[in-house]
Amino acid sequence: MNICVFLSAADLDERYTAPAREFAGLLGKAGHTLVWGGSDTGLMKVVADGVQEAGGRLIGVSVDFLAAKARTNADEMTVTRDLAERKALLLAKSDAIVVMVGGTGTLDEATEILELKKHAKHTKPVVILNTAGFYDGLRAQFQRMETEGFLPRPLTELAFFAEDGATALAHLESEIAAR
């Protein structure tokens, strides 16, 4: 399975890197392929290293203004003209999506993927990996949107919130197997 992971390229605290490393190891050991933003920095590097060390493949999709930070030993690397093309290609190359901790870029990617799913432009499973409660506020906002009628579909149809990598991966594998 090709699993797209949206996440930060920043150097982060161990409370975020340790669970990311664990998830990457699970992904690689299960024989899955990481589809990611292609950067060889920060948390993106941690996850790519973990997947590769555990035997998984790497498919990177970088963007021209970040190409200098792209991983040189990925199994496949594409450099796009802009962020919109990058997001479209990440989605096209993946079977499932995981949103890990990140900043505005990660939030942009996550909300676009959910908006596309809301409008049935894709049916891929989406998991939000809520490491250390990072997305508690986002979950509360989504629940408010649902309660107040801003979401035409239940939140549970759009995304699954997982508290750890093992739960995230198990959910994705069961969703894909059920298709």
Structure characterization notes:
By secondary structure, the protein is of the alpha/beta class. It contains 7 helices and 7 strands. It has helices at residues 14-29, 42-53, 83-92, 104-118, 136-147, 155-158, 165-177; strands at 2-6, 33-36, 57-63, 76-80, 96-99, 126-129, 160-162. The protein is globular and about 45 Å long. The two termini are 13 Å apart.
The sequence of SSEs as H and E is EHEHEEHEHEHHEH
**Low-pLDDT ranges:** none
Number of helical stretches of at least 4 residues: 7
Shape: globular
Largest sheet, in brief, is: 7 strands, parallel
Helix content: 40-55%
Write out the strand line-up for the largest beta sheet, numbering strands in chain order. 4-3-2-1-5-6-7
Cα Rg = 15 Å
Beta-strand percent range: 15-25%
